[in-house]
Amino acid sequence: MSKRETYESRTEQLLTPIVKEYGVEIYDVEYVKEGGDYYLRAYIDKEGGVNITDCENVSRALSDALDAEDYIPDAYILEVSSPGLGRTLKKDKHLERSLGEAVEIKTYKPIDGSKEFAGILKAYDKETFTITEEEDGQEEAAERVFKRADIAVVRLALDI
């Protein structure tokens, strides 16, 4: 397991009882370097969405827990927030909740001359994602299957 994966996993373990206490759930945890700074980001969610008080409560409790455990030697910035409306769908639990929803897919390399696609998420498995795309002037939506290995990011679409 990489340093990043270890930090994310340990943070998720610390976060689990905290989110339970505050009535929210873990959406995702990421440890990334942007510019010269490291960021430890915890994304939380709940039915109806989280508010600033939810983020503040979880942030304070997580900060205390991280200080007590002290397993990240690098200086980092802790952020606790909502995953947002155009949230990235990284895990199978995110995909499961988003079946039937409009999504945007970006690929690493062009497919049929494009790297960006939009449609309704119809299915997924370990190897593929399937969306239906509505083309202008077509009566029926076209189904498109992508290999997971070709996909850079999948996120909920803000508008299709």
Short description:
With 160 residues, the chain is of the alpha+beta class.
Describe the structure.
This protein has 160 residues and is of the alpha+beta class. The protein is 28% helix and 40% strand. It has two domains: 3-81, GMP Synthetase, Chain A, domain 3 (2-Layer Sandwich); 92-156, SH3 type barrels (Roll). The protein contains three helices and eight strands, in the order αββαβαβββββ. The strands form two sheets. Strands 7-6-5-4-8 form a five-stranded antiparallel sheet. It has a three-stranded mixed sheet with strand order 1-2-3. Helix 1 packs across helix 2 (52-69). The longest helix has 20 residues, at 3-22. The mean pLDDT is 92.
